Structures are given as C-alpha cells and as structure tokens.
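For the sake of transparency, this paper describes our internal protein records without simplification. Because each token names a local backbone shape, the row as a whole describes the fold. One such record is reproduced below, unchanged from the form in which we store it:
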Amino acid sequence: MDHELETDPYFEQTRCIIGFVQLIFSKRPLDNYRFVEGAEDKDTGIVIAGIKALKSESIPRIIVARGVGQSISVAMDNLYFMSAKTGATTHKMLMSVPFSINVIARIDAEAQEMAWYIQQNIIAHRAKIRKVGGFHKIDSNITVTPPTDFNAVLNPEVRSEASLVQVGFGTLIPYSYTIAPNDKVLLVRAKNEVKVQGK
C-alpha cells in the first residue's frame, strides 16, 4: 500500500488502477515479467506501484500516477438535495482526473510491449474498472507515447539506462459535499414561526 495515497482524495481510484495493472501482470508467464503480490522488489518480475516506485532501482517497473483534477459542474450550483429538517444542502459534481501509467524497461521494445499490453487490457475491461473503482467514466481514447530516455526525464545529463513509455487516459470521478446552514438557531425559529402561523 502506498502511504502517500492516504492523503489523496482520489485514493480509491488510484489504488484501483494500481491493483488492475498488478492483476494483469500477475497473469503473465513466469519468464515474461510476471508480478508477484507481496514479494520484495528483487523477488518479483516487475515492480508495480504508485509514486513510491520512483525510489525503486528495479527495472522493469511501472509507476501509476494521477494528473491534475478539475471540477465539472453538472447542475446549477451543483445542488442535488436539501434537507427539510436541517437546511443542509448536498451538492454533487464530477471531477475530471487524468491518469498516467509509466512503463520503464531496459530497451524500447520491452517498454512498448508492456505499454500496449496495458492499453489493450484497459480497453477490454473498462466497464469492470469503472464499477470497482467508483469511476463515472473511463475514456476509451487511450494514448501510448513513443519511447523516451527515462534518465532524460529526471536528469538529462546522465547517460540513458532505461526506456520510458507512458499510457495515458482521462476519467470522470463523482464527488459530493454537504454544506450545513450557517445559523441553525435562526432556522429553528423560522420553522417554529411557520408552525404558529399554520394554527
């Protein structure tokens, strides 16, 4: 489990994507970078994790990261429900959140093969990922970048020792929040006055 994910409001969705990539790589043959759950980095065919995988020196490895979230309004003031008893209002909206799955391997061919393997599986299992992860939508337009030098991303002056291919896709995640009335005492008084007038 990635401890840094605990402060992420999209923790469950990020964990779902990491878990999905781990699952599909656990089905690969032993000699083809198979993921072994619970194993140390040296004992698994490939390391698959969140941002903490950047600290790992194992190659190949896969780093799952989310991009910048952006709110999308779905109704006027995003109003969904108002409690007649408390006056609290519940608002619902959608968050547009992109994800990138970064495949790092020794050579371009390996990185590309694993990236396309991930892309094909996401397309094939989008409906299941959406349901398990609580997504509203997972975009079918999935991008796969050409291979680049991994070291060039972190330190351009260092000689390249690995290849990086990124798989990217957009998602929509439902989000809700509740606003309590600022003055509950005033609300109770107004309710009592309505009752008196109704007699």
Summary: The chain has one domain: 3-71+96-171. The helical segments are 11-26, 108-124, 126-133, 150-154, 184-198.
